[in-house]
Amino acid sequence: MKSRITRLILLIIPMILMFAGLAYGAGAEDSQWSTAKLAWRVVNTIALIILLVYFMKKPLASFFAERTTQIRKDLEDARGQRDRAEQLLAEYRGKLAGMEQELEKMREELRKSGEVESGKVVGSAERMAAAMVESARITAEQEVRKAKAELKSEAVELAVQLAESLIREKINEDDRKRIVEDYLVKVGGMK
């Protein structure tokens, strides 16, 4: 530490002398600058520097020591953060690679699930179609039976009408009286 201060003093003194020489040379015409004044100013400046170094040595040394310590600490913190960041990066890269596999696995599961659901939907549609065909067959049979019954009823009605018209044409008044009497005897005998 002392060697730094000595070097600093040895660097500052020639600079002061150089500037003082320049100032003296520039003011040679002017009688204000004499060698005694210049020497007094150089001594004064050197004394000021010595006093500054003497009184500022400890505060400056402690400031620079604290600053050095803080910089070292900051560097260690930065290294630790960098190491943690690299560790997180490696971890996230690993997770990302795992996610690709997981995504492919999920796609395969969805594909299988879709096939199963598709099979269920097809099966359900086939059952519904079979039920609809059966329902349509039953309805058709009912409609055929109903149509047959209606046709039978119409045929009977037409047969009755035809028979009635034939009877009206072929039966005379004597046949009617005989039929009524036979009917009344049969009905009377049933009682």
What key attributes describe this structure?
191 residues, 0% strand
In short:
This protein is 94% helix and 0% strand.
Helical content class? over 70%
Low-confidence stretches: none
Give the averaged pLDDT, no decimals.
81
* Tally of strands: 0
Structural class, by secondary structure, is mainly alpha
The proportion of strand residues reads: under 5%
Largest sheet properties: none
Cα gyration radius (Å): 65 Å
User: Count of helices?
Assistant: 3
The H/E string reads HHH
Principal-axis shape equals rod-shaped
Termini gap: 154 Å
What does this structure look like?
Helix 1 (2-26) packs across helix 2 (35-170). The relative contact order is 0.03. The chain is 94% helix and 0% strand. The chain is mainly α and 191 residues long. The protein has a domain at 2-94.
Topology:
Blueprint: H1 2-26, H2 35-170, H3 173-190
